[in-house]
Amino acid sequence: MNVGPWRREFDVALTAVRDGALLAREIRRHSPETSFLKPDQSPVTVADFAVQALVAHRLRSAFPDHPIVAEEDSAALRAPTGQHVLESVLAAVRRILPALDAGGVLDLIDRGRAAPSERFWTLDPVDGTQGFVRGDQYVVALALIVRGEVAVGVIGCPALPPTDGRASQIGWIACAVRGCGASAVSLAKEAFSPLRVSGRCDPRAARVLRSFEAAHIDLARFNAIVEAVGVQTPPVLMDSQAKHAVIAAGAADLLIRVPAARAYRDKIWDQAAGSLIIQEAGGHVTDLNGVPLDFGVGRLLTGNEGVIASNGRLHDAVLDAIQSVTIRP
Ligand code: AMP
Ligand code: MG
Questions:
Q1: What is the mean pLDDT of the chain?
Q2: What is the DSSP letter of 242?
């Protein structure tokens, strides 16, 4: 795959995501149901912490001075009530990095606490934790942000079936480098094959994806938009940036993310890798108002409301539909 000036960053990111995705898959096989609530009431699992430690280790080895902005931190594991979880995390990471001790794992997890800067990595070790726990889709998502733009994006999808026979088994990686296109590669290291969005232009035939978790979306507004677009087929519900991989592969045409609360702002690690992969596969990504996603304003997409990702051809139909169903004061 052509990766322009980002050969080393791309290779390291791909290896880190592949190792992280295989570790997450292994953890789910052995202890699928173990999740805990964070102070904000969102779930976290041994896999979230273990994958964050492993990916942070891979990045630190290659780029010791690169900041990482990641979803998890070690606070819950350092509390007395978190000791048994820490033991499970340590056992999981040690299968790959046997020399690590508990202090080393906690420090690796906390490498994800860096502030966004001119050039940094952003990581969601398990995007779609609820899907992970439910036995559905989840991904490991890693992106390199340079001056507010995504330069490299890699999504490891351990549970995603092949979309068109381009991967031989369940579990593949979608990746992209800005200006160089997007590719798919299996978790088992087969050859890269190019990703290309669909050519569908008829909104009535559009295949739409949305979050599985109804709590993440304003269902009434989502339904109104889909109806105004004229879509005939019910949306497919899917957790995480697996949705982005499916759009990039041309197996769906539209992803519409209408947050439940008008003031909700997405986290950068929930969109960075996926948005680049869709764009490099020939698609288009904006917020609900048609504004490009701005990854240069902090840990949140402060300047953007929701997300529309499409094959490009259907994008304006969705933006028009949003205007038509939005009641302005
Ligand atoms: P998805 O499966 O597409 O809904 O994406 C999962 C991501 O949704 C998680 O990584 C969370 O960061 C994010 N999330 C959590 N709560 C909310 C919420 N209330 N509204 C929108 N997104 C949320
Ligand atoms: Mg997450």
A1: 95
A2: H
Measured by CA distance, the residue closest to atom 22 of ligand 1 is: 216
Which of 45, 110, 122, 129 is labelled catalytic?
A: 129
The reply to whether 253 belongs to the active site is no
Q: Is beta strand 149-157 parallel, antiparallel or unpaired with respect to 172-177?
A: antiparallel
Please name the residues in contact with 134: beta carbons below 8 A apart, sequence gap of 6 or more: 212, 239
- Proportion of the chain above pLDDT 70, given as a percent: 97
Pocket of ligand 1 (CB under 6 A): 42, 124, 127-128, 211-213, 215-216, 239-240, 259-260, 264, 267, 270
Concerning whether 302 is annotated as a catalytic residue, the answer is no
Residue 212 Cα: closest atom of ligand 1: 2
pLDDT tens per residue across span 205-255: 999 999 999 999 999 999 999 999 999 999 999 999 999 999 999 999 999
Ligand lying nearest the CA atom of residue 49: 2
* Tokens matching residue 236: 């497919």
Which pLDDT value is given to residue 33?
Answer: 61
CA dihedral 219, 157, 167, 182 (to 10 degrees): 80
Residue in 48, 52, 216 to alter for ligand 1 test, most ligand atoms within 8 A of Cβ: 216
Give per-residue pLDDT as tens, 141-156.
999 999 999 999 999 9
- Predicted TM-score (pTM) of the model is 0.97
